[in-house]
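Let us work through a complete example step by step.
Step 1: write down the sequence.
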Amino acid sequence: MSRAALILRYAGFAVIAVLVNLATQRLVLGIGWPMPGLGLAVAIAAGTLTGLVVKYVLDKRWIFYDVEGGLANHGRKFALYTTMGLVTTAIFWGTETLFWWLWHTDAMRELGAVIGLAIGYVTKYQLDKRFVFAPRHRAEAAE
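Step 2: predict the structure and record it as tokens.
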């Protein structure tokens, strides 16, 4: 696959994950929380989880062409994928929260989320390529 096609596919999958993330947040925020701060925290966490699962499935198969199966293999890779996502999640949450604190509107919170996720996904691709979906011999040599 050409570099341009890879970038477009990865960006498209990022957009799908962002939409799943934000839709989940809206659903959770729509519950009507007695403590708005708690509702926001739960919404961000739930959105992050759903976006993470969707992105992992898409990346594994269509970006890194990883066809290895088995529960142990999936568990190891998803754990690594999630670990790499901790850094990028901090970028995402920090940006989203900063926008909320500065403007106190859902539109600006979501804009902060999109900006944070964009920065995070660029970083995450590099980490995943090197540590999660690298051929086993390369990944073990890096340890």
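Step 3: interpret the result. The CA atoms of residues 9 and 63 lie 7 Å apart.
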